[in-house]
Amino acid sequence: MVSQKENKTSSVQQLIANSRNNKTKKIVEKAMPTLLFSAAILSILTTFGIVFTLIFETFEFFKRVSITDFLFGTQWLPFSGNEPLFGILPLIAGTLKVTLIAIVVAVPFGIGSAIYLSEYASEKTRRTVKPILEVLAGVPTIVYGFFALTFVTPLLQGILPELKLFNALSPGIVVGIMILPMITSLSEDAMSSVPNSMREGALALGATKFEVAIKVVLPAALSGIVASVVLAISRAIGETMIVSLAGGSTPKFDLNVTDSIQTMTAYIVQVSTGDAGYGTTIYYSIYSVGFTLFIFTLVMNLLAHYISKRFREVY
Fold first, then answer.
1. pTM of the model
2. Mean pLDDT by groups of 10 residues along the chain of 315 residues
3. How many CB atoms lie within 10 A of CB 151?
């Protein structure tokens, strides 16, 4: 027994000595923090590079177009030969129409699915249904765009005959389907993190399972649910291909969802595909629109971060 113990001690000491003598491991251990730090710095510099490019090119645009006309103008006619107009409100209106329709579709279905998966589904059902829902997030957005144009729009035209081929309703519904997995997955994670002791306490007081889900779990997971919704809104605002294919290219400052629209991202795609020459005012306008879009998504992300921290429950 003593001999075996000595052999084991000797073996461990030998392994430690071998490990200390391994020069390759030492080099890797010393180099790894530097490599990881470089990756972090590169990410930060890339972000600053994108922001500075946007600001610089947007500044060039505002040398040619009044910022007041840009922010408060109700007509976006950049290709008008005599007097081009660059009032961004029609593009913002198109973007918000699609986003609001998407939220109306995604929030009830997303939170409902999350409640089912968290509170009612068995472990086997959860492991099956959740990955299937998350597959929706991996579908290319251009496929969603064709789905909106060739399936959803004709379907809706059977109900709403006045609906145009290009409209705000179809892309709004399909964008809602696209962001549905994000709301479901993040909300379900937030609800699953609520301790079972809270559920058991409520059940012991005579609450039904539905009352536990709505009055106990949902409020306890509110910060995560709201943050998931805000992130989904940010994703919907920045969606490009679906609105480019199914929304049309008619910027209008109104509330009509059955007619053709144009969103900020759709306009950027239109100009970027060759409708304007380099150095023209129209060319620089895509940066001003991109900067506006950046402000929108930045505000939404900051709001999600604030909500997540402000209302976070620590168990």
1. 0.82
2. 53 67 75 89 91 89 90 88 87 93 93 91 86 81 91 92 91 93 90 89 89 89 87 87 87 89 89 77 90 89 79 66
3. 12
